[in-house]
Amino acid sequence: xxxxxxxxxxxxxxxxxxxxxxxxxxxxxxxxxxxxxxxxxxxxxxxxxxxxxxxxxxxxxxxxxxxxxxxxxxxxxxxxxxxxxxxxxxxxxxxxxxxxxxxxxxxxxxxxxxxxxxxxxxxxxxxxxxxxxxxxxxxxxxxxxxxxxxxxxxxxxxxxxxxxxxxxxxxxxxxxxxxxxxxxxxxxxxxxxxxxxxxxxxxxxxxxxxxxxxxxxxxxxxxxxxxxxxxxxxxxxxxxxxxxxxxxxxxxxxxxxxxxxxxxxxxxxxxxxxxxxxxxxxxxxxxxxxxxxxxxxxxxxxxxxxxxxxxxxxxxx
Length: 317
Prior knowledge:
The protein is α/β, with parallel strands linked by helices. The chain contains 14 helices and eleven strands. Helix 3 (49-62) links the parallel strand 2 (40-43) and strand 3.
């Protein structure tokens, strides 16, 4: 796309970024998105440091196009992760779940292009002050961890656009060319898509998880775990346990004990659909067919261009 700052910034043809999702975004998915002329991201949030190094190297072997790594800044081995990114000469990093001031200058000092994910215009301003290169405004329609503000993408993107001058990506509830077009109308210059790519052939998520998510209906996910970190979950047995605990007003400690460790891995990666933490976005209910990344990208761009032509016709321009 001509004169698109996101494309120019990341060296890609289409301003479509694949979210760096835990247990979904391995080297196969990231390289497939990059090979389809978007930007693939490895999801470091579910990788031990040396596993991440392995995925970076495999991704380099699978694509000669740009790709990046998503790093939750609350990661326990963050120092080691940052060292690996420098050693492996990763050129693009998306950070989230933390203060962008902490690592942005370090990364940029090593020639890394940095984007940060936010859930409010206030945090977007902090990103600009921290010196990031781009901002991802993610509405609460998104799967997984969400902002406490619970602001929808429709409201968040124009608020962030008004607040900053940086290149802006929209995320949350976006999985089609038409929703991408709507995001552009709100002021975004690109989109970050998670759920739709999580359900592709190349995603590392368990096949049972993909099948369940491709059968969801409207309202089958909800934002839960608000005492810990708001997380959008599929309604399953674990969801009902959380719902009951929240209705009883249990303490943060009790909720943390209920969550335990490795529950997202159990659900998304291992396919335990009853006891696992099943994270997926609201847009999942829109899809019924598992596709390849190439087919998804072609459909999104075709629909975006067709929708743009239709709007021109409707407006008489």
